[in-house]
Structures are given as structure tokens and as C-alpha cells.
Amino acid sequence: MTMSAAPHRVTVIGGGFGGLEAAKHLAAAPVEVTLIDRRNFHLFQPLTYQVATGALSPAEVCYPLRAIFKGRPNVRVVMATVEAVDLEERKLRLQPSAEGGEAFDLGYDTLVVAAGSAYSYFGHEEWRQVAPEVKSLESALELRARLLGAFEAAELEADAERRCALLTFVVVGGGPTGVEMAGQIAELARDTLSDEFRTIDPGEARVLLVEMADRVLTTFPPSLSRKAKSQLEHLGVTPMLGHTVVGIDAESVTVEGGVEAARRIPAHNVIWAAGVTASALGGALAEQCGGEVDKAGRILVEPDLTLPGNPGVFAIGDMIRVRRPGGEAQALPGVAPVAMQQGRYAAKAVRARLEGRSVSPFHYLDKGNLATIGRARAVADLHLVRLSGFPAWLTWLFVHLWYLIGFQNRLLVFVRWSFSFLTRGRGARVIAEGGEERESGRAA
Questions:
Q1: Are strands 91-96 and 75-86 parallel, antiparallel or unpaired?
Q2: Sequential DSSP letters for 317-357
Q3: What does the pLDDT look like over 353-366, one tens digit per residue?
Q4: Which residues contact residue 297 at a Cβ distance below 8 angstroms, ignoring those fewer than 6 apart?
Q5: Does the active-site annotation cover 180?
Q6: Burial code of 337-355, b = ≥16 C-beta within 10 A, e = fewer?
Q7: Which of 143, 217, 347, 443 could form a disulfide with 25 if both were Cys (CB 3.0 to 4.6 A apart)?
Q8: What confidence score (pLDDT) does residue 433 get?
Q9: Annotated catalytic residue: which of 21, 32, 142, 180?
Q10: Is the separation of the CB atoms in 208 and 238 below 8 Å?
Q11: CA dist 240 → 179, 243, 258 (Å)
């Protein structure tokens, strides 16, 4: 009797946009796919700031990974953390996320690494505790508790200066996340919480957006940056352009800009949205393959997204720079469309190799940039056309609903946004112990 060959083993690290796309496009291939993530869900990261400001609930921006692949018997989901990668032996050392699980080894034939990135505090790790970010679901829930708790504390604060500090919100970073976060906080204070307090007026809250460049949204055309700044100011946000944060503690943030001396701003709420650093896994891979790593921790990969000297290992997403055919390195934007296109490319390359075909170098198709600022306020650079205001906002809504995982989530988010647009309300303003939200389970 002739024994059939074992299926080709493809292991994907990371259930974010890139890793998920790679696994989905390999699900129909004659391969055995293992998807590894330390969480059991895919997080739609572009909307975590809406969880932080009470516009959406956690379940509406997450989707269980096992539910995505329940009809794909060749895809296995493993909830674990990657502790080490052995490129020579082609195996991973995994630590199960479940409490009490023992570490184990997992072999692979092809590896797709989509480990993502984290916010960089530029050498000031002590700021992380007092200036949370919104890149993860856990941090978004913590931040929601802090934001809503600030208004509750201000309601009971008799000292005017401390009350002012409690109602001062400083967002660091004028990119899309910072702009969106600042706009949402302003709307929360001026619209949603209006008339809900008796001692304070939430509309008097100060929202400061600190950006070291001379304009917000530097990846957008200058004309759209100016429109975004104008829309922010109309919401009551104060953009502090050309300013750098030089100090943060539990009660203040210190900024300096131009010829202005360092200035301390009393503020109990600082939100970090400035700069990212690649996953440490990229550096560990670079050490083994002799690859280059830049200041942001991104590893340089070949034009086909493989590690130097390791054609069986693909790296995608925020953690890489791509060597172009001419030899120069290209750092692509750290946005979901880049990771998704790279995930699909890696899957295509794996299938082509199994069929004895080659693929051309990866090329990113840039479809444009979107950033929302508030209710009916947004900017959109679609290359052939540039939009602002209500048309850009509708475009932003459509694109995000389209890419959200799961019909149920799309429907729920559409209803939430419709309700918010009509009433200016937010239905997820719950402060739970430890910043955690405990919800009843729902069918996936």
C-alpha cells in the first residue's frame, strides 16, 4: 500500500489583519494551517478608540477566531504565546495562554509571521502607566474607565484647580488615531454627557492634541490636514502643533515647542497615540538570519516578503520593511490594508510554490487614506478625489463596515452608529471594576 505524503504545514503567527488574511486564503489550499494568537479573537483595531469612548462595546469590534474557521477542518487555532523561534530546526516554542498550560514545541514547513507592533514611548516606559494607548482591547477598556471616571471625580471635586485638571484631556500624536481620539472625547464631553451632571458642565472640558509636526495627519495632503484641523477646532479641540511632550506624570504633562520654554499643563488624563515599535519577535528573527533592523524594530525582508536566507519564512505587517527589486528599503504605512494585502500575497506565494510556480515581488496597491474626526466630520484622500466633511464621513463608515468581520457585528455597529448619529448618545458607557466589561455571551 502506498502511503500518502503528509500535508504541507503552514503556521501563521498572529490573528490580526495580516495573519487572518493569510490563514483565510490558505484555508482552501491542500495544506495544514495552524493559526497562533495569544487571544482567542480577532480585534478590529481601527475601532478600539470607539470602545474607549463608549461608542461601541468590545464584542462589536471582536470576532472569535475559531468561529471564523469552524467550517475549515484544515485550519487549527492555537491560543498561545510564541516564546522562541528556531529557524534552523523549523519549530516554535509555545506557551499556552490558558492558566496552567505547559510549554510545547510546534514544527512547521512554512512560517508566516504577523506579530504586529506596539506603541513606542520613545525610551520613557514609565509614561506607559499614566498615558495609556488604544492599540489593544484591554487598554481601550482601561482608558474608557479613566475617561468616564474623570467626569465622575470632577463632579465631586470641590477644588477648582483639581477639577480643571480632571477635565483636561491631552492626546499625544496627531496621526489618524490621535485625531479620531481627540474628536471622540470632545463629542463625548459636549454632546453625550450634556445635562447629565449637576455640579460640572462636561462641555467645559479641555481637549488638547499635541503633535510635534506643523500639521495633523501628515500622511494626508496639506489641504486635508488644514480641513481636519479646522474640524477639530470646531469640535472644541485645541491642536498644539510643533510641540513635543517631554514629561508625563499622574497629574500633568509637560510640553515644549519652538522658542517656547517647557510648560507644565495640569492634566489627569493623557492618551498616547504617537509612534510605534515592531514586535520583539522581529528582532529575534533578525538575530538568527542576520537581517537588518531599523530604529523602530522593523526587520528588512526580501521583495517576496521572506526573511533573508530563509525562503520558508514570511514576515508581514507593521514589523517589516520591504527590500525593493532595486535594493532600496521601503517602509509601508502601518495600516490594515497593507497587512491584509501582504497576508493575501503570502498565501498566494505558498500555493504557487506547492504548484511549482513563482510569484512576482510584492507590490502594495494604495487605495487612499481615511480619518474620521467626529459626527459627520472626516477627511478622505482617495487619490483621484479628496473629500472632507459629511461625504468623507459616509465613505469612512462604509469602508469600516465592509471590512468588519462577521455579519452580526456589521449589523450591530451600523445600528450603534445610526443611534449615535440621531441622538448623539453612546450606549456603552459602563465603568466596570478594573476597567473590564463583563458581558453575557453571545453566539458567534
A1: antiparallel
A2: GGGEEEE-TTS-EE----SHHHHHHHHHHHHHHHHHHHTT-
A3: 999 999 999 999 99
A4: 117, 277, 278, 279, 280, 282, 283, 319
A5: yes
A6: bbbbbbbbbbbbbbbeebe
A7: 347
A8: 61
A9: 180
A10: yes
A11: 12, 6, 11
Catalogue all structural domains in the chain, each as residue range(s) with its CATH number: 8-119+277-354 (3.50.50.60), 125-274 (3.50.50.100)
Residue 228 CA to residue 179 CA, distance in Å, equals 8
Confidence check: pLDDT of 2 > 80: no
Q: What's the start-to-end Cα distance of the chain, in Å?
A: 43
CA neighbours within 13 Å on the CB side: how many for 270? 27
What number is the average pLDDT over the span 227-245?
A: 96
pTM beyond 0.85: the answer is: yes
> Hey, how many other C-beta atoms are within 10 angstroms of the C-beta on 102?
7
Burial class (CB in 10 A: 0-12, 13-18, 19+), 433: exposed
Bridge partner residues of 244 (DSSP)? 256
Cell numbers linked to 307: 526573511
pLDDT in tens, 249-302: 999 999 998 777 889 999 999 999 998 888 889 989 999 998 888 888 899 999
Q: Is 13 helix (H, G, I), strand (E, B) or coil?
A: strand
Q: Where are the beta strands (DSSP E) in 259-304?
A: 260-266, 269-272, 276-278, 299-301
